[in-house]
């Protein structure tokens, strides 16, 4: 990265370009919690000199730390995926009242099309709900430029600014020329209880200030260059923003455009003036009719897109059908089913859970793949932390012990409070923490129980077993899941027990621990073709046309799970793996 | 080059096959040649063997980061099934490197993991990008690792590549 920074010609993703722009504009602080497609923002900033960057424990924490830095005088940035904003909602809503001191940009990276998320909520509504301005770039190069505007807008209007990317911008790379970092001194912090202490009387006054701010922001929105009119052929006029603008330009290069980089507050007068100059107005946007509703409120008559286009990602080839008032014709084809990596320690846990036939409340991470066939051993997945809390509610209503699984990063993010809640309210059952030492799903970021910071510095390591005991959990076991006999008897014992227990299934992620042991041997004459080995869904095992099994030595890590599940000892490990584990 | 003078290349395959690295090299080669470049990827579950695709577009000024359906000049498939899924992106007389994939697999034998560089070599026959820039891009993307192997395989692909016209598929 250093090499690229000094070269000035760079090929950056939307995430990286945004980070680079913020860095150039004197950013001093950044906090985030990993989440696709936002993770690369903080990863980039952690390599920038003069920026104090951190992976926080969760998004609420990240938001508050960043807000604190802004109040005390540093230009600050928060970044997360769209659903991360839900977790940060509490401080976000009230920070609109307090306002900021130094510039504070709140980045939300939305995921239309649900490439890697639990929903596709449209976070543009958050800006309207919280009454803060919304800035949306269309491309990586614009992300770099617009984030600079966002930082100064934040200071000028004393407000957090919501800055929205979507997957298609965050994960597109574009070449651009970058600039040097500006030297922006930190702002002085002054005690101002009426502004920063949101007790009812002060908050009421701040709400009045906020409404006044919105009126001024409305005027700004009418005049800013972020909202620009491009008049060409007057037959169709698109009101659009974000990546949708580029799709429309691709398909209708000669049309007229009102391109909105500041979608809230909506520039009503400008939009009306635009509408008056074109024959037909089309509001083109991905997901919800956010701009359309505002355009209609302003009295602009425009075409409504069919509700089918509120679902999923927009694509350039859909636009003619949108104009024609037709429903969406989608054929994404069948995407390949993702599987856990060869040697992944999660595989053993689900092999055991499947065998024990228990209900499993799940959570979000690589292990969510345990829900797919042939495992079928994870039965709920709603939000981070839910692995524990939803298990609690389910086991009460079912009247029996069940299991809940949660990754280590997710446990630290929002599992701990749920665990304390279970202890407090006398819940029972087995919580399994899948402790692979990393946040694997989002690209192997470290977390408190990893013992390293984003800058790869050593730090105090959170000890999960001590923490669970301190929460008051009666039984806490640490088990290496790679030995499934031990794991199975451990889980079985606790499921049949009469207390709340935590099993920490600890073995490193195979994307981090790249060690390999010998590929197991396969003796065809012993194979009874029962295919129990295929039930573990390992990409290294292939059923040949003859019905025999082949172990692909390129994929196999020698974890030995297939050998452990083979009842006929047709697959053998030469004893090596077992020896390690016993 | 197509009517808008934009080159559209679709790379597709599965996580772990080197699809994204190939698109990155080609993207850099286009950047170094002075084009405006946009490269978009879909890789939600890439590491876990899921479907991976990357849309690369370059020319004077690129708008959409996605190639509109039916406008890909080239498809570079790393996997037969993934190619079938995305075949409809290829334009009428577009070129698909599906034969080169098989040719490469045959030619590389023990060096199977260099298949992406072989395919880039085959692709390079069609593009007005200087050989020099390809080498430089390979250097940047692979951070200078295995330069001799990479260069050798690239040239092999450049010699042996043939491509298949879309209408023949
Ligand atoms: C509120 C929220 N924040 C972030 C994410 C992104 N995300 C998905 S899974 C995950 C954590 C994965 O780590 P871990 O729980 O340790 O499981 P692993 O993938 O390592 O098995 C994260 C951060 C999310 N889905 N929701």
Please write out the topology.
The complex is a heterodimer of chains A (582) and B (169).
Chain A (H helix, E strand, L loop, with lengths): L1 H6 L1 E5 H11 L4 E4 L6 H7 L6 E4 L3 H13 L4 E6 H6 L1 H10 L5 E7 L13 H7 L3 E2 L4 H18 L3 E6 H4 L1 E6 L15 H4 L3 H24 L3 E4 L2 E8 L1 H10 L3 E6 L1 E3 L3 H10 L2 E5 L5 H8 L21 H5 L21 H12 L3 E2 L24 H13 L4 E5 H17 L4 E7 L28 H8 L3 E5 L4 H13 L3 E7 L14 E2 L18 E3 L5 E3 L9 H5 L5 E2 L3 H6 L1
Parallel strand pairs in A: 2-3, 2-4, 4-5, 5-7, 6-7, 10-11, 10-13, 14-15, 15-16, 16-18, 17-18
Antiparallel strand pairs in A: 1-8, 6-12, 9-11, 19-22, 20-21
Chain B lengths: L5 E9 L4 H14 L3 E7 L8 E9 L12 E6 L2 H7 L3 E7 L1 H11 L6 H10 L6 H11 L5 H14 L3 E2 L4
Parallel strand pairs in B: 1-4, 4-5
Antiparallel strand pairs in B: 1-3, 2-3, 5-6
The complex binds thiamine diphosphate.
Thiamine diphosphate binds next to α5 and α18 of chain A.
Write up this protein.
The complex is a heterodimer of chains A (582) and B (169). Chain A is an alpha/beta fold and 582 residues long. Chain A folds into 4 domains: 9-223, Thiamin diphosphate (ThDP)-binding fold, Pyr/PP domains (Rossmann fold, 3-Layer(aba) Sandwich); 227-323, Rossmann fold, CATH 3.40.50; 346-506, Thiamin diphosphate (ThDP)-binding fold, Pyr/PP domains (Rossmann fold), CATH 3.40.50; 521-572, 2-Layer Sandwich (Alpha-Beta Plaits), CATH 3.30.70.20. In chain A, 37% of the residues lie in helices and 18% in strands. Chain A has a 7-stranded mixed beta sheet with strand order 3-2-4-5-7-6-12. In chain A, helix 2 (14-24) packs parallel to helix 3 (39-45), helix 2 packs across helix 8 and helix 4 packs parallel to helix 6. By secondary structure, chain B is an alpha/beta fold. Chain B has a single domain (7-160), classed as Pyruvate-ferredoxin Oxidoreductase, domain 3, CATH 3.40.920.10. Helix content of chain B is 40%, strand content 24%. Chain B has helices spanning 19-32, 80-86, 98-108, 115-124, 131-141, 147-160, and strands at 6-14, 36-42, 51-59, 72-77, 90-96, 164-165. A 6-stranded mixed beta sheet of chain B has the order 2-3-1-4-5-6, with helices on both faces. Chains A and B meet through strand 8 and helix 12 of A and helix 1, strand 2 and helix 2 of B. Bound molecules: thiamine diphosphate. Thiamine diphosphate (TPP) binds at residues 33-35, 81, 83-84, 87, 118, 364-367, 384, 407-410, 434, 436, 438-442 of chain A.
